[in-house]
Amino acid sequence: MTTELEERRPRWPVWYGPAAFASGLIATLIVFAIAGAIAAAAGHDLPTDGPGIQLGGTLVQDSFFVAAAVLFASFVAPPKPWQFGLRWAPLQRTLVAAAIALAAFYVFALLYIGLLHPHGQQSVAKDLGADKGGLDMVLGAILVIAIAPVAEEFFFRGFFYRALRSRFSMLIAAGIDGLVFGAIHYTDPKVLSLLPVLMVLGFVFCLLYEYTGTLLAPIALHAINNGIAYAGTVDGSTALSLGLAAGVVAACVLTLRALPRRLTPVET
Prior knowledge:
Helices cover about 70% and strands about 0% of the residues. It has about 270 residues and is mainly alpha-helical.
């Protein structure tokens, strides 16, 4: 079985994914090196830590990942949103698949935690200053629940995974994507025990994207997962976190319904 979508989708070489990933990281390091040099020339030291640095650094890195994906994709053909998975899909089928994917992931996460009792904990909220409340908590929530899911899914599933699929099977490509997705969330040794959970999360997102054909499904689930995690780690953020997650999900559903019904799978 082939599909109209697969026939029209540009075939990105498998090395485009890792190359774009490395380019995004290098570009981020260059920006911070330039900022540090400018600050030093002005007689100041550029801070290496703090909520502002963490927030800005994450935004810069996510922006460069998206830009790298678009840049490398343009080497094959003029990039279009649907090529990255921003396309229509049957709403009911997508909702059912997303619900099953989310349930499967949480079953795995609960079993993993229950059997292995990992003691690691991500420090994202603390790094962003969200645990202090106020504006830092709000900005951190917007970054973690709204911006990061869109940027990370666009790169890791919409581009990186799709490039891997030009050579590998679905399971192998999803496995590689999941490993890289988990690794990019490493911050210190305390997080190591949690990385397998994040790797499986990335793997599940790939399968969901493959099945539904739309990137909007993993974006919505990513926002839900991050919203729940943020609410559980930042005191007083429950309403904000769940409200933002619900807003992202609603935006994905409305976008899904508004997109033109073309490039849908057809048997040949």
